[in-house]
Amino acid sequence: MPTIVVPVMEDKRNSLRSAWTFEEDRGLKWSFRSLLWVLKLAGLLHGVKTKETKSDEGHENEESPTTKSKRKCSFWLVYDIVVFLILLGNFGSSLATFKNATSLDGMVCNEIITCTWFLQAACYALNNIIGCRNWNAFFEKWDALSRSLGFKHLKTPRRISIATCILYTCWLLASFGFMGIGMYFISSSGPPPPQDAASIIIKIVQMIIYYYFVSVWFLLTAMFVIACYIIYIAFRHFKKKFVGTITSDGKFNGDIENFRLQHMKLLDMLYTADDIFSMYVLVTIATIIPLIIFTLYFVLFKTVNTFAYAATWWSVGLSFIQIICVFMAGGVVNHEAHAVLSSIYTIDLRNMSPGESVQMTTFLTQLTSNPIGFTAFGLFTIDKPTIITFAGSIVTYAVVVIQFKPSGNTLDLINQALNCTTP
Can you give the pTM of this predicted structure? Predict the structure, then answer.
């Protein structure tokens, strides 16, 4: 009797493959929808639809979904503004601790570090309110380029989106765990805190503020790295397609003007992403150097307890992670945007017509006239010289701080000079 074989595994593979194909047909935004929902819940996204409406499915009724979308966008915009005001108020309240400061002691130095972190988070929230309107254009330009360049890499962005959500959950657990340890150390080293209703409400408010603070820091950094990776993929496939038209003897078999125009579209997508993240890059670079310097000063000059020491190095670690992510991700985009130059220089211009030579010269000018990459609000581009300059600045300031640390003999001489009297 013949055995009936049911192809269960094959059906699962086909269904999974069809699911991936369906995601590719819907575009990049739908591959990121889980991460976009996390951004919305954290008060960092508005104006981007994360739920499919009837108009997206091809139905004729377009008036109702549009009106509904506008109501949703207005709600999320108000929510984003509320989150920004919460973070801004948190920064403002932290400034009140300086009114009784008389000298640069350990407490004041610690407050400077804390206020800098709060200012950074408030600026990040403001950046998202201003730049979120460009996300739809970024997704549309990516989808158009993926069709024109002939590549589909939406499986990787979807996996990155899911992995980022998982890392975000782990980050929240670690952050609130660190906060709980800090509250335990504070309560164990002093009188027990009151347990009345007002104190409980204050603790809940502090936890809400802390949630927005840690969410803004992680999600903005993660989105910047992901956007850099997405743009890197596009430039890499452009280079691969361009190199494929060059023979071993240096003959170019493609349409140079078509490639130049495609590269311009890639730059347009990059500039759209830069409109989203330029303020983020500027605020990060402007605040990270003071954070690192004041934190090193706090560690080297001041005697603190175990938890304060751990919290200080936690701040140093986050600062270095953030600046490394910004510089490495932005540097990769800058490198890949100019990577096609090495291939252009291998082309034998003797095999090209005068018109093609002019087009090639125009393309070279486009690539070499200005640095291509993410900018700090238009002030400078993240490229290799910028990275080396800022790295050197951080090292220089750190060496200066270490050199100015007084020794024990110096402190004794200072005390003797202060205590001596003259006849």
Answer: 0.82
